[in-house]
Design brief:
This protein is an alpha/beta fold. Helix content is about 30%, strand content about 25%. It folds into 2 domains: about 5-115 and about 235-290, 3-Layer(aba) Sandwich (D-Maltodextrin-Binding Protein, domain 2), CATH 3.40.190; about 115-235, Periplasmic binding protein-like II (D-Maltodextrin-Binding Protein, domain 2, 3-Layer(aba) Sandwich), CATH 3.40.190. The chain is globular and about 55 Å long.
Amino acid sequence: MQRHNLLRRNFLGGGLALTAIPALRPGIARAATGTVNVAYAGSLVNLMEHGIGPAFDKSGATFRGFAGGSNKMAHEISGKLLQADVFISANPKVNDDLTGAAKGDWADWYVTFGQSPLVIGYNPKSRFAALFRAKPWYEVLQESGIRVGRTDPKLDPKGRLTLALMKKAAAVYKIPNLDQTVLGAPENPAQVLPEETMVGRLQSGQLDCGFFYSTETAELKIPTVHLPKEVTLSAHYTATVLNRAPNPKGGADFLSFLLGPNGRAIMEAHGLDVVHPALTGDRSKVPAQVAALLS
């Protein structure tokens, strides 16, 4: 069965970047029978497009995935600008934007299924690469001329987690204003980039380093600084089948595959720290095949 892939590949200076193209919009296209539209956190591009998606296709259905900042996609769903059957976020709190009458009752529940710590990935050809192996990471980030990439804290949980991590590091290491020295303003245009372009810009040499989740750097063999326990913060991935999904049965089938043994094995192979699925919300609204997999 032909696979519908809403990502395109861009080769930038020899590096591979996977960037999202516009997702399905109401009035433009409708999901065909057997096609499941999955809106997922951009940090899961390789996992979804090269692992989960192709494996799910073998069941006879068709995976159609599109990536983006979790907050941005949740706002588009609640604003009826984006249609999807399944929504996967990198932060449980994002689901609040889809829950309750005031937000359109798009979700009654979600399942937490995995986590991934925030790390610093760097370009091995950067002039700062050797310093990351020789000096404390927070000192390297203060070097003059270093080009740091991060995502928008308004649109993406990773962007907010980056701000929180740097504030935590400032307190732990007793370095006043470390976060402001390294990051500048929260929405510093010299650093803030769309999540889907971060890897490509790092690999092409446009960035010296950036803040990523470990599942991203592990898959692509990006050299990484794993932060010490006292400052480490992690993404917590959640998934739900949306109310008024074009293909609710397909969404339930996809989520049961993701949470089942085959999906868990694929996620682990792609570097995700898989946890036993835990439910938040109304259990009576959870599809039977998904409920059977919950603790």
